[in-house]
Amino acid sequence: MSVTNIHEDPDALIRSDDPEHPANLICELCRDFYKLGWVTGTGGGISIRHGDHVYLAPSGVQKERIHPSHIFVLPFQQTAVPKPGSKRDFLRIPSQKGLKESACTPLFWNAFTMRDARACIHTHSQHAVMLTLLHPADAQGNATFRISHQEMIKGIRIGGTGKTLSYLDTLEIPIIENTPDEEDLTEGMSRAMERYPDAGAVLVRRHGVYVWGGSWEQAKTQAECLDYLFEIAVKMRLAGMPLVGGDAAA
Amino acid sequence: MSVTNIHEDPDALIRSDDPEHPANLICELCRDFYKLGWVTGTGGGISIRHGDHVYLAPSGVQKERIHPSHIFVLPFQQTAVPKPGSKRDFLRIPSQKGLKESACTPLFWNAFTMRDARACIHTHSQHAVMLTLLHPADAQGNATFRISHQEMIKGIRIGGTGKTLSYLDTLEIPIIENTPDEEDLTEGMSRAMERYPDAGAVLVRRHGVYVWGGSWEQAKTQAECLDYLFEIAVKMRLAGMPLVGGDAAA
Amino acid sequence: MSVTNIHEDPDALIRSDDPEHPANLICELCRDFYKLGWVTGTGGGISIRHGDHVYLAPSGVQKERIHPSHIFVLPFQQTAVPKPGSKRDFLRIPSQKGLKESACTPLFWNAFTMRDARACIHTHSQHAVMLTLLHPADAQGNATFRISHQEMIKGIRIGGTGKTLSYLDTLEIPIIENTPDEEDLTEGMSRAMERYPDAGAVLVRRHGVYVWGGSWEQAKTQAECLDYLFEIAVKMRLAGMPLVGGDAAA
Amino acid sequence: MSVTNIHEDPDALIRSDDPEHPANLICELCRDFYKLGWVTGTGGGISIRHGDHVYLAPSGVQKERIHPSHIFVLPFQQTAVPKPGSKRDFLRIPSQKGLKESACTPLFWNAFTMRDARACIHTHSQHAVMLTLLHPADAQGNATFRISHQEMIKGIRIGGTGKTLSYLDTLEIPIIENTPDEEDLTEGMSRAMERYPDAGAVLVRRHGVYVWGGSWEQAKTQAECLDYLFEIAVKMRLAGMPLVGGDAAA
């Protein structure tokens, strides 16, 4: 499909019979994520980078009911993070009225540019939020979720796109503070990614998590492993068990 | 469709191939709400106001198994709240025997007349009920659920139909006392809506919640955001965490 | 369909295109109950009495995978409780090898004969079992679950087949002790039903619950209301809240 | 189907219209197990032994999305446990790139050779993991989960393939320590199976459980009964209730 064609018919970018085409996948995965409680009430979503194109769900809509025709497409440029609101650079904008670009766009871009990720998932999972509440920031304003000795750690990749962790590794995920506007998280997320180059996700206090991977499959399976670890960590903490060390607990 | 047609063939009001027609939507949404645990055992439901017509599910039936032919249609009149039991004013009554108008009708009317809502959802969610149990009434008989510093607050609109709250706002939802007969809640709900003009919902102690919006999508996504907040608030309270202030907790 | 036909072709009893035919309904409802966690691992089920015929799922099979051809049919006789194991009286026995009649048969019969029920549901719901664990027997060996001031109480009928309770009523469900063999519960269940003529269900300690109704819809919606009340009662008790009295709690 | 045919066309081993053919069943059951939270994030799975053939899902893929063409087939030999990585002995290897044999293979083999099992399920259920955390090893490094007086115990078979337990029996499941590499669990699992000849499963600390049966139906229903017992045991322990003895608790 040539660039010329796309400019003449931008909908060619989102029209495909292939269920694994990003425009179709985003809709299917959002329905799945809704059942998991990750994108309830319009929150959360997934962005997929496919070659030079980035596919994005719209903002503020029911994620379990989106249709490929609702998908935005942006060009992927390593150096230019798109500012939300500026529609200048879109390759494809939905014709349906009232659909807005996701405010998460620059956050997804962090994963694409800093980790060469091909997909980034944002969930509002209650397990993620409860976990951040159990990890208050220290005097320097820093907080980190750490857990060890859990089989599911083996499903997480170093930096999200590297090789998988071993059972003997301690998983570390930074927790950043939330901001009133989602795009203002961009700076905090990129700083956390610099400080924690091995982390495959960033937790946002009282908000949720951003998880990425070298493919949509990697992003999804890591989001599942992490959500499992968030959930069991909350249960363990509420039962008085240490998260790190593998000690017997009762 | 002319008024003459409706009087000659009231079923024209509920017969449509459009999945977004209120008679079809109510059935689909009730199936979805059943999966969420909101309308188990015949409780709860949704009413949609479409122009001058109000669509209502029947009372006391399995909400996940209703059919468009079971739907009641009332004329919407700003000043005349229909009394349950009076069938005089119906535009369409199901022909199937034993179906009764919902006792929630005057409560849905509160949302339609006082907030210009187009849809009102009533759930028996356990999260809502547990939350009311954690908020006993004060000496004056008043109780209010308050929560702040949660991303999901941004999904709630001022008064249910206004602009969305900011992350810096504290969400306030009044809790009214339950009454033996559902229609007797009408007065308490309207008083609470007068006292809390910004609230997009009313909780009913040991019973559930009424949530509305300027469209069915708004009502549904706000019901989801609120149910999420009720659930996490119960978890936070049981873990000894304050709901307001955004302080670190452990 | 004449008796002669049934004897010539017993499968006529379970062959129907009507989704509400008992043989079809039992399969559909068992799939639904599986999703609710009521009949996991072959436990639990539903029996429907339709005129002079009683339809029963087989014992010890995956309840979410049964087919109408697996259904047993017994004649309903007010005075003759069928003993499990005696196949003499069956109107229809599945031809598939290895299918056994449910050991719950005489317990379902209690509901059919003592309350004129048309359907009886048996669940292994964890909410029911946890609730029995929170209600130890007194010195006389008796235990009763009591709850008041819950909207969902209004979904329960007096004796399971009478009129519905009011919000002002206290719900009472007897808890009987479990026995190694399910059919040995028959006597304990019938004694509890005599002592509690208004109860619409019997809880079995460390086992589950039997719920019935004047129709399958009544049995199912009451099973849902009760399971909701069992669940919230467990949460309330673990949070230190009283189940009866409607007092404020924190 | 002759051996000659299989060698000429190994895909004949996984191609069937019969939904109960092992290659089809494994895919269907993995989708079901995903909904139960047992195989989230690529973890867990099921292996079925059918005559002289053992069917295995691939490692490290989304278990809810596998297709019969992804299935590995090994010959079943009582004496030769296949080493992971050695592909010499496969009867059928998926042609799709990147699919690896499950590291659980020698663990499934334990069930096939030591108990004559026909199916073995491995789950990462959080109930299993939480239960192991509540049962620290003793000074000799041993730990055992014991529970009695639960109706669901009657769904478990002696040794997984024998006759079912009675309500009066105490269920015992050994808990072995996890190892960094899954195949290194083989030795610990077989030792535990020797020490506990009546146990129908082996729990792995901070990891999950292995359950087997004389058929896939037995393996699945026992996995469900055990997961139910793990879940209620965690709830009981956190509520301060003893798991063994059947005493009243509050």
From TrEMBL, chains A, B, C, D:
Keyword entries, A-Z: Amino-acid biosynthesis, Cytoplasm, Lyase, Metal-binding, Methionine biosynthesis, Zinc
SUPFAM superfamilies attached to this UniProt entry: AraD/HMP-PK domain-like
Domain of life: Eukaryota
Catalytic activity as recorded in UniProt: 5-(methylsulfanyl)-D-ribulose 1-phosphate = 5-methylsulfanyl-2,3-dioxopentyl phosphate + H2O
Chain ranges passing through the membrane: none
Cofactor: how and how many bound: Binds 1 zinc ion per subunit.
CC terms in the record's Gene Ontology section: cytoplasm
Localisation: Cytoplasm
GO biological process terms, semicolon-separated: L-methionine salvage from methylthioadenosine
Zinc in keyword set: yes
Positions that bind substrate: C104
Molecular function (Gene Ontology), one example: zinc ion binding
Binding site for Zn(2+): H122, H124, H207
UniProt similarity note: Belongs to the aldolase class II family. MtnB subfamily.
Official protein name in the record: Methylthioribulose-1-phosphate dehydratase
Gene source species: Naganishia liquefaciens
Gene symbol of the encoding locus: MDE1
